[in-house]
């Protein structure tokens, strides 16, 4: 079997046995990730990995983790968080206050082990202080990868994973937990972690900010365009979409979203 046939057979097997639909990942990306597992298992190529996967169910979870790489950090891309703190969140708070609306909804789509939604929760709490009681804030962190989701739910991080967190914030929003740190109850209560497949599951709506950072980079162009329009439809009027620094807006979303900061990849849904 040549490499392309083996790749197609692997996609079918991963879908039927592991329940992960790989059709919308770029082939080049998928091949690269699969080769990581081929080498790790001392095999010769995709063809051999196909047979291996059939007879080694314990490989399934590792493969999901490898395909859906979940590298992340607290306050990843500090300049984006500065923009968020100085422009985006104050704008949303101002509008909500003017309109007498209390509900503030955020979605971190592809949240990995939770660093992104917890960073946003900390930022909102810092900005609002005691005024936070006047709002009903919910931050939804969703991902497809069970391993990442279980870490996100625990909210426990090592010192190294917290290296980007300002010492004052570390002191205020984390508590020692063995050799590690755990996010405080107050921050945890602002965040809901849930399994959700961006390619297949129903979209949620009425968000004020959607983060989809460093996720769609692995998806095909067609899927990226569809996803961007899904996010557009999931936003409230005046809501913001924030994508990864190396990602670009493509398809119809380019026409309907207003660029707020090109370098920070921040866009807004304005009234049509
Ligand atoms: C590189 S991490 C990005 C984490 C965070 N957004 C950040 O920028 O630091 C990409 C995440 O996207 C998730 N992901 C990949 N495909 C997905 C899908 N179809 N639905 C939901 N999440 C997905 C992965 O499991 C992974 O945790």
Structural commentary:
The protein is of the alpha/beta class and 272 residues long. The chain has two domains: 3-67, Orthogonal Bundle (Chemotaxis Receptor Methyltransferase Cher, domain 1), CATH 1.10.155; 78-269, Rossmann fold. Helix content is 45%, strand content 20%. It has eleven helices and ten strands. It has helices at residues 3-18, 27-40, 46-55, 59-67, 78-99, 115-128, 146-154, 167-173, 185-188, 221-234, 253-256, and strands at 103-109, 136-143, 156-157, 174-177, 180-183, 191-195, 207-212, 235-243, 257-261, 266-269. Strands 6-2-1-7-8-10-9 form a seven-stranded mixed beta sheet. The chain has a three-stranded antiparallel beta sheet with strand order 3-5-4. Helix 10 links the parallel strand 7 and strand 8 (235-243). Helix 5 (78-99) crosses helix 6. The model has no long low-confidence stretch (mean pLDDT 94). S-adenosylmethionine (SAM) binds at residues 68-72, 76, 110-112, 116, 143-145, 148, 197-199, 213-215, 244.
Which characteristics define this entry?
Chemotaxis Receptor Methyltransferase Cher, domain 1, globular, alpha/beta, 11 helices, 3-stranded antiparallel β-sheet, binds S-adenosylmethionine, 272 residues, Rossmann fold, single chain
* Oligomeric composition of the shown chains: single chain
**Helix-strand pattern, N to C?**
HHHHHEHEHEHEEHEEHEHEE
Helix content: 40-55%
Strand content: 15-25%
Number of H/I helices: 11
The number of strands is 10
- Major sheet size, sense and barrel closure: 7 strands, mixed
Q: Could you say how many structural domains there are in total?
A: 2
Give the cofactors and ligands: S-adenosylmethionine
Which residues form runs of ≥5 with pLDDT under 50? none
Determine the CATH superfamily of the largest domain: Vaccinia Virus protein VP39
Task: Output the structural class.
Answer: alpha/beta
Average residue-wise pLDDT: 94
CATH-assigned fold name of the largest domain:
Rossmann fold
What is the CA-CA span between the terminal residues? 52 Å
Gross morphology is: globular
């Amino acid at each position: 079997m040549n490499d392309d046939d083996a790749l197609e057979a692997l996609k079918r097997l991963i879908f039927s046995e592991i329940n992960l639909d790989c059709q919308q990942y770029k082939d080049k990306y998928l091949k690269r990730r699969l080769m990581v597992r081929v080498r790790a298992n001392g095999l010769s190529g995709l063809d051999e990995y196909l047979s291996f996967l059939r007879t080694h169910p314990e490989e399934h979870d590792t493969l999901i983790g490898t395909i859906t790489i979940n590298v992340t950090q607290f306050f990843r891309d500090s300049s984006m968080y500065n923009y968020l703190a100085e422009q985006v969140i104050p704008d949303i708070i101002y509008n909500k206050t003017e309109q007498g609306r209390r509900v503030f909804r955020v979605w971190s789509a592809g949240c990995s082990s939770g660093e992104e939604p917890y960073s946003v929760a900390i930022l909102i709490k810092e900005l609002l202080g005691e005024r936070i009681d006047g709002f009903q804030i919910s931050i939804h962190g969703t991902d497809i990868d069970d391993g990442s989701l279980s870490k996100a739910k625990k909210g426990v991080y090592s010192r190294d994973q917290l290296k980007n967190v300002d010492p004052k914030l570390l002191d205020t929003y984390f508590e020692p937990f063995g050799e590690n740190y755990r996010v405080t109850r107050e921050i945890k209560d602002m965040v809901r972690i849930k399994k959700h497949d961006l390619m297949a599951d129903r979209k949620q709506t009425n968000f004020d900010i959607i983060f989809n950072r460093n996720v769609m980079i692995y998806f095909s162009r067609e899927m990226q365009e569809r996803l961007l329009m899904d996010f557009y439809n999931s936003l409230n009027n005046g809501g913001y979409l924030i994508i990864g620094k190396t990602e670009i807006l493509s398809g119809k979303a380019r026409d309907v979203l207003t660029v707020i900061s090109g370098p920070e990849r921040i866009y807004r849904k304005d009234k049509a």
